[in-house]
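Q: Give me the 3D complex with adenosine-5'-diphosphate.
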Amino acid sequence: METILSISNLTKKYGNLTAVNNLSFTIQKGNVYGILGPNGSGKSTTLGVTLNVVNATSGNFSWFGGDTTTHQALKRVGAIIERPNFYPYMSAYKNLKLVCKIKEISEDKINEKLELVGLLDRKDSKFKTFSLGMKQRLAIASALLNDPEILILDEPTNGLDPQGIHQIRAIIQDIASQGTTILLASHLLDEVEKVCSHVVVLRKGEKLYEGPVDQMISSNGFFELKSENTDDLINYLEAHPNVKSTKILEGLVTAFIDQPMSAAAFNKELLEKGILLSHLVLRKESLEEQFLQLTDDLNDAN
Ligand code: ADP
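A: Here is the predicted complex, encoded as structure tokens.
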């Protein structure tokens, strides 16, 4: 596997605030990575460091296995980390021509990239006439003009309407299917689930998880229980080797389990201990609930 970017023990402090805390992760060629976390969790700061626009407080990062300078490496990277900004009175095509001049790259790819983002038929329209989604798509075309090995996007669908969101996600998937590695920052679980193969979950600058999206959360669920004899039930659950934690609310006992268990077997087990249940349900949190538990957002909001 070819490593595109490797970050190790990265920390960024702004005065007393630690925006990124001892963060390490690796980006391998050909995958679509999401950095997922609530607003303020350090996603943009992390991207900014790797793009040399934010200075790290400590730690390291290296591009493409470390055999080039960051300056050289960034010529092989396409990034959009701010709101797209082009000349309002110039056409989409002319704006991209200017980008080619500034970056000293060939103009050959302009039409191809405009086509990829669905703007070829609007290439002569002035930038100011574009919707926000079209502006974002033009920015993607612009970042792709030099055929980068990796495309970096910070909250690519922020502020867009559902159709605009759908278009951007489809374009990202298209670009990925052509072999370009992608790294995107998002606060939307749904977006990362839909678009990414791998994810780094951040909370308050710290990594909570790194790995495939589909293995992000592996919960065995929980039992909801009611019994006449709540005290006995709680005592039994608290001593149970497969019960991670219990909680009780208005007589409803919730027992979180750390390995798969069937409701029937659990009912039998309790019965044998003389604990009769009036209610027994085995539930699994939705992916969203599990994610919120992982990032502890529920507690933060309270
Ligand atoms: P995210 O991209 O996940 O929303 P950021 O990386 O933008 O998070 O911010 C992480 C934390 O660092 C936040 O608390 C934010 O307020 C703070 N922060 C970001 N940039 C600066 C800055 N230039 N000066 C001071 N604090 C900053």
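A quick observation: The longest strand covers residues 3-14.
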